[in-house]
Fold this protein.
Amino acid sequence: MSSNLRIKKVCQFCCDEFIAKTTKTKYCSLRCAQKHYKVRQKEKKIEEAKKQFEEQKSTNRKRSKKKPLQLGKEEVITVQQASTILQVSRKTIYNMIETNRLEAININQRLTRIKKSSLDDLMDFDLKRAEKNNIFDIDDAYTISNVLEKYDLAQSFLYKKLLEYGVPKIKSGKNVLVPKKMIDLMFKNYTK
Ligand SMILES: [Zn+2]
């Protein structure tokens, strides 16, 4: 491609005018070509780093959507999730919060989150099954007077709560038995 062509051009690196021998020449000198190459490589690296950073940020965001919500060190779940896990109604979950059987955090008036750790305490006791089958181990039961004494409750209050939570009852002679584990969970944090 050697020719006697003389083209006035502006160097893409130093911006000086120069006479190019081919239409493709972009630089006044090899030095400018090399320097510009280095600059472009650097810019490319910065671009790539930026892109990687943005990608990382968006995958982190996606991942944090999947992960359970963390409040501080405490893992929390929604009322709906708790009701699904325990197989009870949302109303029961709210009751459990009110009676301190579940530890909750009120983010605001309409947004309640439940500490997952407090749910784990309940998990080993299948409330729903006890409700449904109305059976429990009578060797692992309280009498009504046991409960009243242990938790220092008024009888009317206890009966209201038994009804509210659908606590299974078994009549045994003169006594009415209620499942120990369930009662303990209900009144665990109860203070008059
Ligand atoms: Zn130049």
